[in-house]
Specification:
Cytidine Deaminase, domain 2; about 210 residues; binds zinc ion; alpha/beta; six-stranded mixed beta sheet; single chain; 6 helices
């Protein structure tokens, strides 16, 4: 299978993708202070109705959490809670579903598929903390298959790349996403703003 496409949207004309990324930026501004981590915002959107399915920002959930991680975990939690309520079970609390569990949450799911994920910074492909990467989580979500072979996530839109201040090997998310069949879209015109917000609490600015 050939890698999925990569697209570069120019700064103008403004598109709904720019609007969604602006929304993700407004979420990134809510990130609790951390002098050692980026501040990122993420949004899961229906490409057909533009409805917002879930959102998240860095450190929103307890622990050293990332924006895309929070966005996906909140989405899974909502779907799992609705399913549990329908079967009379107790509402699951803040569960971090592991590999292999996510597909089962979506058995019987009647919501939308082939969602778009917007993130102000390209998903992390390595974490200093050794915690699970957002790249890994997004690839997992893309493997959740629904009716007619539709996948849960189809495209990832990014506002800016990641510099090498934390991870010296660089970020290899674009290639892995594309190999996993996920289109990568770089949204032009918001790079500087996305980067400035990402760095807003960092002690050490880029040299
Ligand atoms: Zn991450």
């Amino acid at each position: 299978m050939a890698p999925a496409e990569v697209h570069h949207l120019p700064a103008t004309p403004s598109t709904p993708h720019h609007t969604h990324l602006q929304h993700a930026l407004s979420l990134a501004r809510l990130c609790p202070r951390s002098t050692t981590a980026f501040s990122v915002g993420a949004l899961l959107v229906s490409p057909t109705s533009s409805a917002i399915i879930s959102d998240g920002y860095s450190r929103e959930l307890p622990g050293n959490t990332h924006a895309e991680e929070c966005c996906l975990r909140k989405f899974y939690g909502t779907v799992a809670a609705a399913k549990a309520a329908a079967t009379g079970n107790l509402e699951p609390k803040d569960v971090d579903y592991q590999d292999g569990q996510v597909q089962s949450i979506f058995e019987g799911y009647t919501g939308e598929w082939e969602l778009d994920l917007y993130t102000t910074m390209v998903p992390c492909s390595k974490r200093m903390s050794g915690l699970r990467t957002c790249l890994d989580r997004i690839v997992e979500a893309s493997k959740v298959i629904g009716p007619e072979g539709k996948r849960l996530i189809k495209r990832v839109f990014c506002g800016c790349g990641e510099d090498d201040r934390f991870v010296k090997e660089g970020n290899w998310a674009e290639g892995i996403l594309r190999e996993a069949g996920i289109e990568v879209w770089w949204v032009g015109g918001l790079e500087n703003e996305c980067r400035n917000v990402a760095e807003m609490w960092l002690e050490k600015k880029a040299e």
